[in-house]
Specification:
Blueprint lengths: L17 E4 L7 H9 L4 E6 L2 H8 L4 E4 L8 H5 L4 E5 L6 H13 L4 E7 L9 H10 L4 E7 L11 H7 L1 E2 L7 E2 L4 H13 L6 E5 L5 E2 H12 L4 E2 L4 H10 L4 H15 L9 H6 L6 H7 L7
Parallel strand pairs: 1-2, 1-4, 2-3, 4-5, 5-6, 6-9, 7-11
Antiparallel strand pairs: 8-10
Helix pairs in contact: 1-7, 4-5, 8-12, 9-10
């Protein structure tokens, strides 16, 4: 028998018995763990390095060694799990993700929230859409979180060029993006995994406005009080730079494809889903830069 939402504390608030977070130390996973840990859910972190994760999060969550590419780690990871936060690590095999979802279905996981990308439903060849389609064909209740481009990409992938060269180095042309903050995506994921009413649904998660990278550079310049330029390299120049920085070929190809979509003007749609789910407006790019100012200092 599958376990689901309970009211064990007598407060009338639904709680999840155990939520498994894959990618627990990542861009969305880390704030999601913190969101869940502040609530009533029992949180299990799936990570390649449980000791490192424990140093980051403390003794509150449960830790399990997990590697998507090694099915021998899946059994202990999924044991007695009710809810699952699942993502597709760029460069991974789609079959690894879908087979892991099948394993979750077999052992009685009840609900999966899958981190997808905005517009996935329009591109059947995208890995994210192929995973969505597969999950929808299982017995798992599902919620697809179709997120726009993370503002945190600027503090993670593109931080070096901002810090060392005072430039935003992305091949996006004059395309616009509805930047979303990964912390908002994590808050949405926590909501759909611990509250009723979100099964077999998809949400389009964006920021409040669509901006081009010239506008983003202006915001950076104002907040950091130094001029930040938008470089707009060619896709070939961008790929060469990312290879030199030792990003994997698969991830570089993914980034080039993603920015090609931006250049075509297909990434600027905004929605009200974040505000409807969280009861507050999504964070702006300016709020992101203000909160991450220290990350962009030399």
């Amino acid at each position: 028998m599958k376990r689901g939402l309970t009211d064990g504390d007598g407060s009338g608030r639904p709680t999840a018995d155990r939520v498994l977070v894959t990618g627990a130390t990542g861009t969305v996973g880390e704030p999601l763990v913190r969101e869940l840990s502040d609530g009533d859910a029992s949180v299990r972190l799936a990570t390649r390095s449980p000791d490192d994760a424990r140093e980051r999060f403390g003794e509150g969550p449960e830790y399990v060694e997990f590697d998507l590419a090694h099915p021998e780690t899946w059994g202990a990871t999924l044991a007695d799990v009710d809810r699952l936060f699942l993502l597709y690590p760029p460069g991974s095999a789609v079959s690894d993700v879908t087979e892991f979802a099948d394993a979750a279905d077999r052992v009685g996981v009840e609900h999966v929230a899958f981190l997808s990308i905005l517009g996935a439903e329009k591109f059947p060849v995208l890995p994210h859409r192929r995973i969505e389609t597969h999950i929808a064909g299982t017995d798992l209740a599902h919620t697809f979180l179709r997120a726009s481009w993370f503002a945190q990409n600027l503090s993670e992938i593109h931080r070096r060029e901002i810090v060392e060269r005072d430039e935003i180095f992305v091949p996006a042309g004059d395309g616009v993006l509805s930047f979303t903050d990964a912390r908002d995506v994590a808050a949405v994921a926590a909501t759909v995994l611990t509250e009723p009413g979100h099964r077999d649904r998809a949400y389009d998660l964006t920021g409040p406005a669509a901006l081009d990278f010239e506008e983003v550079a202006e915001i950076f310049s104002e907040v950091l009080d130094r001029p930040i330029e938008y470089a707009d390299p060619s896709r070939l120049t961008f790929a060469r730079q990312m290879y030199r920085r030792r990003f994997s070929p698969g991830f570089v190809a993914f980034m080039v494809a993603e920015y090609s979509v931006v250049r075509l003007g297909r990434s600027g749609r905004t929605t009200d889903d974040v505000e409807a789910l969280l009861g507050r407006p999504p964070r702006t790019v300016r709020e992101f830069v203000e909160d991450y100012t220290d990350e962009f200092r030399a």
